[in-house]
Amino acid sequence: MAIFKIIVLLLSLFCFCQTQLSPTFYDQSCPNALSTIRSSIRTAISRERRMAASLIRLHFHDCFVNGCDASVMLVATPTMESERDSVANFQSARGFEVIDQAKSAVESVCPGVVSCADIIAVAARDASEYVGGPRYAVKVGRRDSTTAFRAIADSGDLPSFRARLDDLSDLFLRKGLNTRDLVALSGYHTLGQATCVTFKERLYDNSSDIDAGFSSTRKRRCAVNDGDTNLAPLDQVTPNSFDNNYYRNLMQKKGLLASDQVLFGSGASTDSIVSEYSRNPSRFASDYAAAMIKMGDIQTLTGSAGQIPENLHCC
């Protein structure tokens, strides 16, 4: 009986280990998986620098809607609405084809082994590193959802560009992320661009939380009744480099989106974190990497849950 209990315990431990995310998950089953993804992502960003921000955002939008399960990649069918068509993603989420290209490249090396959810997570890391961000060990071993969650995406699980600090804090807390995680992850807005419609009202409402000169400059491309689809860099100084200018901008009331500027200036606990990151880029990089790893653990599918897509694409 004792021997039987030991065997059961060992088997249960073995199963537990096999279903946990780990940076070494593919070391035996597909040893070239991460390097293949990395090469594909670097090629894509070398063609379009803005893609780095888009791939990081794609990982964020995947994880915050029912977990990091690649459900954001699924296209609509007669019986399923797509997360791509949600308010936060429609005509703004980008990078789907880049993930598909990486999936195809991996499939040519190890067919039917690597999930799209893992490719999205690794792509986000490789994207930030390529433009100057930190390199960190991505945990892999996720499996993919068989369905999308449009209703959840539209119910507030993806933050609005108008979100208040309390709303952002509550949302991140529901996902298991604390205030420091919120401020660190928001720092990826040191990259990328936003359409005028997402920040125009800040330029014309005479708000006290935006620098007058900064507002005047942005009005040139965002007229009151025109230019909603025009793009503006989130960081006007170094828009294509992963650095800590985002936090310096916030301290100068030069946060482009209202949901960015709320992190500084209200006297909340986020003020001190923004100030810290503006002075200490190494601390920001370290905390960002830790928060990305933490975010990548949200509601993952492992073991026999979900699927590994059998075709060459993620969508």
CATH fold group of the largest domain: Peroxidase, domain 1
SSE series: HHHHHHHHEHHEHHHH
In whole angstroms, the N-to-C terminal distance is: 50 Å
Rg, alpha carbons: 21 Å
Total number of domains: 2
- Judged by helices, strands and strand pairing, the structural class is mainly alpha
Please report the first level of CATH classification, the CATH class of the largest domain: Mainly Alpha
Report strand %. Answer: under 5%
InterPro entries: Haem_peroxidase, Haem_peroxidase_sf, Peroxidase_pln, Peroxidases_AS, Secretory_peroxidase
Protein name: Peroxidase
Binding site for Ca(2+) 2: 190, 235, 238, 243
Enzyme class: oxidoreductase
